[in-house]
Amino acid sequence: MPELSQIRNFRLKILFLIHFIFMSLSTMGYWSSNAYLFYNSLLIVLFLWSLYHDQSHEPIQLAIVVNGSSIFLDILILVMGFPSSTDSARNKFSAAMAILHLIIRPFSTILLIKNLEERSGATGVLTGIFPGGNSTGSDAYEDLDRPVIPQSSGKTGGYDFSSAQQI
């Protein structure tokens, strides 16, 4: 049996499992709207995409954005649709799981950021999410589809005759 550290994308798989369980338990009641199911399902799809393409940065970046914005959306949905004291135990349990899911979201966002840093090889907060940033991963990228043609400045055939030695 392999060690836990040898399992590929172990932390990401654990995050997927935690969010999947809390999402499933949170949607058991009738108090939440379809919006809650929508953005949590989108997060699950992004987790699956990032597990499938384990070298790509985009699914992790999108998962960070969706998970971060879900904190605000969870608060809105909980405020607007929280079950009253006369609602069933099913609705109350579902709302309690949504609250626990909300508490876990900042920690999972931090773990997603660390996973993005591991994938990109760059360090810093939210590496590569915002364009124009100075991340080391995007600066070292060489575009192989568009070769760079060297500028000729007094050179013939790639040789500079101005610094040639006499024979």
Automatic annotation (TrEMBL):
InterPro entries in alphabetical order: AGTRAP
Q: Where are the transmembrane segments?
A: 12-30, 36-52, 64-82, 94-113
Where, if anywhere, are coiled coils annotated?
none
Identification of the protein by name:
Type-1 angiotensin II receptor-associated protein
Q: Name one GO cellular component term.
A: plasma membrane
Q: Where is the major localization of this protein?
A: membrane
Domain of life assignment: Eukaryota
Query: Which SMART domains does this UniProt record tie to the protein?
Result: AGTRAP (SM00805)
Membrane topology annotation: Multi-pass membrane protein
Organism classification: Eukaryota, Metazoa, Ecdysozoa, Arthropoda, Hexapoda
Q: Which UniProt keywords apply?
A: Membrane, Transmembrane, Transmembrane helix
Any GO BP: angiotensin-activated signaling pathway
Q: Where in the cell is it found?
A: Membrane
